[in-house]
Every structure is written in structure tokens, then in C-alpha cells.
Design a protein that fits this description.
about 300 residues, alpha+beta, 2 domains, 11 strands, globular
């Protein structure tokens, strides 16, 4: 009969458990390994706080464990190494879920796809506009691929709005992808789709524009409904045809140092930063930190595999 820890750390049964239950299992394993190596975690705070705080605490303990396990002075037995390896995989999954702010994806009726382009947006100050790469045929962080020539613009053409964070922060458009001359500014160029946002004159829109112009924000995200797709490995999809609903300027990726500076100054477009926009920027810092921890956890897991291989 598998234990609760075994169920939480097994890919076959983890789906039955919440992120909190899986995180508790990881904390139990890390605490047991810590005790085995002769040091104790702080049980007064262990397992308490928000999920983000708990992940940070476990990450710090994992780094300490790694240093001790690789020093040669301490030896973990095979079972503890195996549990640590499974715990790092589980923790990586949890941090990814927290970073995205969503649960495990199923086959969606509607997809939001973030585009982290290496090419910064092109800003036109006289037109108060910015051109972004909003989608490519590169595999995204979810493992999905959107075929660019299959993106239909018929519905979007009727109301070509541009949002910030898909309307989750500001409940009104910040601009339009229709030029002052009335031309739709969404262009497919081979395996890439680009779009230009002509910002509105509202305070929030002008503040987002300034963040883009200053290099604080550079990410874009496309919102599509798949109409024809085929499965790929790992439950992901090749989206052959889709209908574009809108696209958004988003705060991931963001220039972390520039975001902190903007928040400390609290001044954009001649006014204090809109409260909802400021809150979104603060949350972007949390997501960035989680992404960094996710990368560290993956590195830790690779080192554990090496340790097991050298035994």
C-alpha cells in the first residue's frame, strides 16, 4: 500500500492531490534527509506560510542539503536519494504551477500563449505605438506549437483591441491594432506574427506605454481558440488552425531592476502609477523569483542524479 508521500511524489497519483498536500510531502522528505545528515529544520515555521514562502524555505533547505551531500563528509542512502530526486521533480512542478498561477492544463477550448521574444518591441514615439512579436512557431513553455498561417483574424478584425494582461488587471483596452489610417496592423511573416499597438489616451494606457518605451515591459501574449489541433508528446498540442480573439502586453518577461525602480518612483505619465497596474508589477516580481527558483530546483535534481550515478 503506497504511503501518502509515495502518492504525492508519484506522477501516476500526484494528480489526485492538491499542491499543498504535495508540498507537505516534499517538506517531510527534506526534513527527514536533514535529520539524517545531522541538522534540524526550524519546525516552528516549517510547513507554515503561503505556498510561495514554503517553496522558498524548501529551496533554501535543498541548497543546504546539496552542499552537504556533495561535500563527501555525508552519505545519503539509496532510498533517501530516490525520495530527494522525486521531491525535486515535484517541487519543480509546484513552482511552475505557482509561477503560472494556474492548475495543470487540460485540452483547452481557449488558449493564452505568452511570447518571450529576444527581439524587443519597436517603439514609435510620434505615433505612441509599439510593435511586438506576439507569436512564433517555436515550442512554447507549455510544449505547444501554434502554426502561424493557421491563425485566423476574421473575428479579431471586427474589434482589434489590445489588452494588458488579458483584461485581468485593467478591464478596458489599452489600445488598438488598427492604425489611424484604418489598417489592421497584424502581420504574419513566415513563422512569426507581429502586431502593433496604437495606445489610447487613457492614463493607464499611457503608463503602460511608458513602461514599454523605457524597456520595463517587453512581453506579448496571444489569446486564441484552437479549431484544429493534433496531440504531441506529454499531452501537448500542435495547433494547426486557430481563431485569434485578442493579444495583450504582459509583464513577463520584465526587466526586474527597471520594475523595482518604477515602483519606487511611483510616477508615470505625470501621475502616480494606477494601483491595479502597480499591483500587477509587484506580482511580476514574485513570478520572476519563482521562475528562478524553478531553474535552481531543476539544477538540484540533475546533481542528485549525478550523485546516484556515482554510487
Amino acid at each position: 500500500m503506497p504511503t501518502t508521500i509515495d502518492r504525492a511524489l508519484s506522477p501516476d497519483t500526484a494528480e489526485e492531490m492538491t499542491a499543498g498536500e504535495r508540498l507537505t510531502a516534499v517538506e517531510t522528505v527534506v526534513g527527514a534527509c536533514a535529520s539524517y545528515l545531522g541538522w534540524q529544520v526550524n519546525h516552528e515555521v516549517w510547513g507554515k506560510g503561503s505556498p510561495v514562502e514554503r517553496v522558498a524555505r524548501v529551496q533554501a533547505a535543498l541548497k543546504d542539503l546539496l552542499a552537504r551531500a556533495t561535500s563527501g563528509a555525508y552519505v545519503l542512502n539509496e532510498r533517501l536519494l530516490d525520495n530527494l530526486e522525486r521531491s525535486t521533480v515535484t517541487l519543480a512542478t509546484i513552482t511552475e504551477e505557482l509561477r503560472k498561477g494556474c492548475a495543470k492544463p487540460a485540452k483547452p477550448q481557449q488558449l493564452v500563449k505568452r511570447m518571450a521574444s529576444d527581439v524587443p518591441p519597436v517603439v514609435n514615439t510620434s505615433a505612441m505605438s509599439a510593435t511586438f512579436t506576439i507569436s512564433t512557431e517555436a515550442e512554447d513553455r507549455d510544449g505547444d506549437v501554434i502554426i502561424q498561417k493557421g491563425i485566423k483574424l476574421d473575428k479579431y478584425r471586427l474589434n482589434p483591441v489590445v489588452l494588458y494582461q488579458h483584461g485581468s488587471v485593467l478591464d478596458f483596452p489599452i489600445g488598438s491594432s488598427r492604425s489611424p489610417a484604418g489598417k489592421l496592423s497584424v502581420v504574419r511573416d513566415g513563422n512569426t506574427t507581429q502586431a502593433t499597438c496604437y495606445f489610447s489616451k487613457s492614463l493607464a494606457a499611457r503608463q503602460v506605454y511608458e513602461l514599454v518605451a523605457e524597456g520595463v515591459l517587453s512581453g506579448a501574449s496571444i489569446n486564441v481558440i484552437p479549431t484544429r489541433s493534433q496531440p504531441r508528446r506529454g499531452g501537448r498540442y500542435l495547433i494547426d488552425e486557430s481563431e485569434m480573439l485578442e493579444w495583450s502586453i504582459v509583464d513577463i518577461p520584465a526587466n526586474g531592476e527597471a520594475v523595482r525602480k518604477a515602483l519606487s518612483q511611483n510616477w508615470l505619465a505625470g501621475r502616480s502609477i494606477e494601483p491595479s497596474l502597480a499591483k500587477s508589477l509587484r506580482l511580476s516580481q514574485v513570478r520572476l523569483l519563482l521562475a528562478e527558483r524553478h531553474a535552481l530546483v531543476k539544477e538540484f535534481g540533475a546533481t542528485l542524479l549525478q550523485l546516484k550515478g556515482n554510487r
